Amino acid sequence: MMGGLHDGELETAAEMLLALRSGDVTSVELVERALLRAEAWQTSINAFSQLWADLALEEARRIDANPRRDRPPLAGIPLAVKDLFDVVGQETTGCCAAYRGTVAERDAPVIERVRRAGPVMVGKTNQHELAAGGTNLVSACGRTGNPWDPDRMTGGSSGGSGAAVAAGIVPWALGSDTGGSIRIPSSMCGTFGLKPTIGRIPTAGLMPLAPSMDCPGPMASTVKDLDLLYRVLTGEPIESRTEPEAPEGLHIGLPDGFFTEGVHDQVLAAVRAMEDTLREGGSAVEPVDGSGIQEVRPLWMRVCSAEFADAHPLLKDPGRRRLVAPSVIEWIEMGERQSDEDRAEARRERMRVESWFGDRLRGVDVLLIPTTPYPAPRADQETVDLGSAGTVDVRFVGPGWLTCSVNLPGLPAMNLPAARSTDGMPIGVTFVAKAGDEQMLFRLAATWEAVTGYRPERPPVPATG
After folding, report:
1. Which domains does the chain have, with CATH numbers?
2. Residue 383 is inside which H or E element, if any?
3. Are 255 and 292 contacting, i.e. CB atoms less than 8 angstroms apart?
């Protein structure tokens, strides 16, 4: 029992919302429990770079003092925010020492939308430094740990947000996705996570990685919570939300090739299990040629590193650059070495990837692919045994090996917490839809959740002294 609430009670945002509206719980109670859990978990998983206990409780008390009929639609529900969104009066560091002391003068547009909807921000979450990596092992705030096994990685770069949701500290959190940074930690920590269509949510006030691919998005413990937070981020009215209808007679494309080679046997088994569930639900699943995209990761790196170098002129200063992790500097230097001709060729190749996905999505409603090549490895693990596909080096086949392909064309993609490995670690699978068709993803995910009876599990809160 924490903050006056029994463990397992009111764990989702939707449940909290109903209880707040009926007066069965107060915002202060929910925020107090979130803060207590954050403190209990912090030593082992290091999910937060900043905790705003006093501010969050002050906001919760203000909400509770207002008549319920006058409150914003989602007032009082705890929320965590990745440390690259501008929140007025707070540091925006991207978990990089070179940006310490950079205090936001105004809220990012998505934060303005959060304030209008009413969730209470309890703090900022740890991330891979400047979002330049998919492990969350590199951060000026220290690495994050996976709540299911703190010795294992969370994936990144939104690893703190994924860990905070998976641990039950908050029911939802803000992340961003440039090469998989929402979907990777959602997969490795066992949450839902959505990368919307590029341009669907504003990126102003978001510390950039690669502006042409940067994409804010929601992470949550259930599909309904994910949908509610997505509506907040897009500015859609919460009151008009209806339960997504179960899709009928869908055509699902199942790519082979790139999306099956070099993938852990247990991840492929999770994809096959999802295929079986979809068929049982009346959808047609058909094979799709997954060849011709094997070089997508190096291409993504070329596009990303060039934009990354351009987006951080402050890091040209030698004094600041010395405060940046060596692996992140490697990304910047890679971008600085690219000529105009190199960049133009990368743009042409990117267009070919866009055409590749367009061809594969023609005639199907979504593509079904693995999210990460393997479940979360240990933080110190250099290689992963994939089973029949052999062994891979984590430095070269990283967690974002598959996810980054979707960012080049800017398509919407959603991770579902589909399975567990034999050692109990989450495994995610991803649906990829046509541009602008996020609602197809929500409908499919809600149907899967209902058919399988999925309910989020949560590891026990660590005992505190």
Report:
1. 13-234 (3.90.1300.10), 251-298+339-439 (3.90.1300.10)
2. strand 383-385
3. no
Answer for the pair 74, 118: CB distance below 8 angstroms, yes or no.
yes
Looking at residue 284, its pLDDT comes to 95
Q: Which residues of 41-67 are buried (b: 16+ CB within 10 A; e: fewer)?
A: beebbbbbbbbbbebbbebbeebbeee
Count CB-CB contacts under 10 A for residue 234. Answer: 16
DSSP 46-73: --EEEE-HHHHHHHHHHHHHS-GGGS-T
Residue 297: alpha-carbon gap to chain centroid? 19
Which one-letter amino acid corresponds to residue 385? D
C-alpha–C-alpha distance, residues 266 and 425, integer Å? 11
- At 281 the pLDDT is 86
């599990």: which residue's tokens?
A: 457
How far from each other are the two terminal CA atoms of the chain, in whole angstroms? 15
Residue 10, pLDDT score: 96
Mean pLDDT, consecutive 10-residue segments, the chain of 465 residues? 77 97 97 98 98 98 96 97 98 98 98 98 98 98 98 98 98 98 98 98 98 98 97 89 77 97 97 95 94 97 98 97 98 98 98 98 97 98 96 96 98 98 98 97 94 94 78
**Interaxial angle between packed helices 296-311 and 340-361, expressed in degrees from 0 to 180 and rounded to the nearest 10:** 130
Residue 172 forms beta bridges with which residues?
Answer: 220
Read off the pTM: 0.97
Query: Measured between alpha carbons, how far is 211 from 280 in angstroms, rounded to an integer?
Result: 41
The one-character DSSP state at 176 is E
Q: Which two tokens stand for residue 82?
A: 């990745």
Q: Residue 2: what pLDDT? A: 59
Alpha-carbon gap, residue 229 to 235, rounded angstroms:
10
User: How many angstroms separate the CA atoms of 165 and 400, rounded?
Assistant: 20
The secondary structure element, H or E, covering residue 228 is helix 223-234
Task: Find, among 188, 174, 101, the residue nearest to 131 by Cα.
Answer: 174
* Alpha-helical segments (H) within 93-201: 109-117, 159-166, 183-189
Cβ atoms of 207 and 113 within 8 Å: the answer is no
Q: Which of 165, 20, 185, 153 is nearest to 456 (CA)?
A: 165
Residue 113 φ/ψ, nearest 5 degrees: -65, -40
Which residues are annotated as catalytic? 82, 157, 181
Strand order in the sheet with 48-51: 48-51, 120-125, 78-82, 172-176, 216-220, 192-195, 413-420, 426-433, 366-370, 251-255, 284-288
Distance (Å, rounded) from C-alpha 129 to C-alpha 103?
A: 17
